[in-house]
């Protein structure tokens, strides 16, 4: 995914978080899930993919700041997934041409007609040049998916509800604690399976 979209190396941890969230919120071929959505297995609640279904990873989007009142002030950015655990449920993480990430809810698709226009192509060229200049060595893609798997391990929360149970303190009764330990084991299996899938593909 990151190689196909020419994602800068410094953003691969965000890409892994996004990829993991998509796999956790959709049905996949992992044997342990038995055709169920992993997020549902963990929480017991129906999975909501609203924050993941709007845009593809590292695609061009238009975004606006809260103080902007006109579409004429829209800016070009790159979509880096939802802004997990911060802001509105539909908050998006946007990479700007200044190599900074901002949290925005006013995000819009780049239409096919816009993408073909010379004006947009110049904006995109300038965007890439500015980003490359500011990121310097961080612009280079990682040569191996394995080099970035540690970033996935560091993602302690995939979405707003799927927290690893081992990092939670609880005063629940023994039956509830047994259920939580079981959920934790399920979470670990899903994470290992997800990591194996990424290294094998």
Structure characterization notes:
The protein is of the alpha+beta class and 201 residues long. It has one domain (9-200). 39% of the residues lie in helices and 11% in strands. The protein contains 7 helices and 5 strands; from the N terminus they run H-H-H-E-E-E-E-E-H-H-H-H. The protein has helices at 12-24, 38-43, 50-53, 112-116, 118-135, 149-153, 174-200, and strands spanning 60-63, 75-82, 92-95, 101-104, 107-109. Strands 4-3-2-1-5 form a 5-stranded antiparallel β-sheet. Strand 3 and strand 4 (101-104) form a beta hairpin. The longest helix is centred in the last third of the chain and has 27 residues, at 174-200.
Order of SSEs: HHHEEEEEHHHH
Q: What distance separates the N and C termini? A: 10 Å
Shape: globular
Total count of domains: 1
Summarize the helices and strands and which ones pair or pack.
Blueprint: H1 12-24, H2 38-43, H3 50-53, E1 60-63, E2 75-82, E3 92-95, E4 101-104, E5 107-109, H4 112-116, H5 118-135, H6 149-153, H7 174-200
Antiparallel strand pairs: 1-2, 1-5, 2-3, 3-4
Summary of the model, kept short:
39% of the residues lie in helices and 11% in strands. The protein is of the alpha+beta class and 201 residues long. The chain has one domain.
Feature tags:
five-stranded antiparallel beta sheet; alpha+beta; 201 residues
